[in-house]
Amino acid sequence: MTDFTTLALRRELIDSASARGFDRMTPVQAQTLPSILAGEDVLAQAETGSGKTAAFGFGLLNKLAAEQAETQALVLCPTRELADQVGQALRQFAATIPNIKLMTLCGGTPMRAQVNSLAQPPHIVVGTPGRILAHLRRESLNTSALQTLVLDEADRMLDMGFIADIEAIVGCLPADRQTLLFSATWPEEIRSVSTRLQRNPKQITAAAGDGPPQRIAQIFHQVADTDKLAALERVLADTQRRQKTFTQALVFCNRRDDVDRVSTHLNSRGVSALALHGDREQRERDEVLLRFANQSCAVLVATDVAARGLDIASLPLVVSVDLARDIDTHTHRIGRTGRAGESGRAVSFCTPREHERAERIAVAAGFRLSWSRLPNNEGSARDQPPMATLVIQGGRRDKLRPGDILGALTGEGGLSGDDVGKIEITTVRAYVAVARSKAKPARDRLRQAGIKKRRFRVGVLGD
């Protein structure tokens, strides 16, 4: 049976699953949740998009005691982007359970503000290893009551060199705990870490979904380095022609300077593009991801910092301007498309000197490599994104809520509900997607009329 009601879940979580349209468990949920709920350690191989966050999320929430103001669960993630995504998901799952406090602890946020918030211990902490360890060493984070440790995308954390931090963190945790380790791949290092951190874990390999298999068309083009920009324009224009509507694409480069060069070129050709790489400040990275997720830009050009933790439900195209360096990176790149039963295309450019690496990727992934001709069309995908993002200099600290912003925009702001998209509120800022043609008038009206009779600075991101 794959219905959540067949599990020994508290009623609030069954209601949460129903409210989110989780009619049936995905394979990773059906295979891992019985063991997680029984208190066993679990070592699970599962891709992003397989439903693993709900698997460990429902498991740790099921035994959480809201009346005990202690940190009972810790989730470690490789990147700030993934930690934010996991934190948001857990908050949604816990919405039916009163008084649950969750904190996200990552770099890029002042340490002092986090220390002050930790004075009232959260029930759940989600964060990156470096920042979590820093709090443990200064004793601002107390884990003496911890029940559950989750390592999400453990293979990525090992690739990024976090193993020493993870082992130092584990040394600060109670020995009597449940440890859940989720990884997209199972290299020998993962098994070694599992042996050191877990007790007789249940080993599970799960498929990504229980509906139709992922439909990702993998296309390889032989392209000289000097022709990559023109080739990219042709691929984007061809995808727009196929989709016959506004189309988004994720474009990967191996080097940061190439990310900037490609995004600058696309913008000069009338394609709305943003750049994402490690040289950007954390706030800039967050705002870029937010604008891409709410359809305020057409193309996101990124290094592999975006390969994990980026979850766009309907992304029809991924392009590797530079061929991925290894099979794992290639797998995670193409996994950004063809999600939740949708079809997608993964296009890889390959110079003549990279043929051997392309063949190794194909053999390891189990498909036959065939070379395709570039589309014959000329020109660029010049459709403007349907949305623009307003940034309001006020957030949770100012007690702003999504309903307040929506009311201000659709009341005196003059917009219809269809003109307003995603609303994201952080501690000090709020972001709202609005129809592009109405963004500046909406900005001006918010500046004049305010929100809840209060004036805030309002701008349009990117202007």
TrEMBL record:
Domain Helicase ATP-binding: residue ranges: 33-204
Q: Which Pfam families match?
A: DbpA, DEAD, Helicase_C
Molecular function via GO: helicase activity
Where in the numbering of this chain does the Helicase C-terminal domain appear?
231-382
Keywords, ordered alphabetically: ATP-binding, Helicase, Hydrolase, Nucleotide-binding
The family annotation for this protein states:
Belongs to the DEAD box helicase family.
The protein's name in its UniProt record? ATP-dependent RNA helicase DbpA
Species source reads Salinisphaera dokdonensis CL-ES53
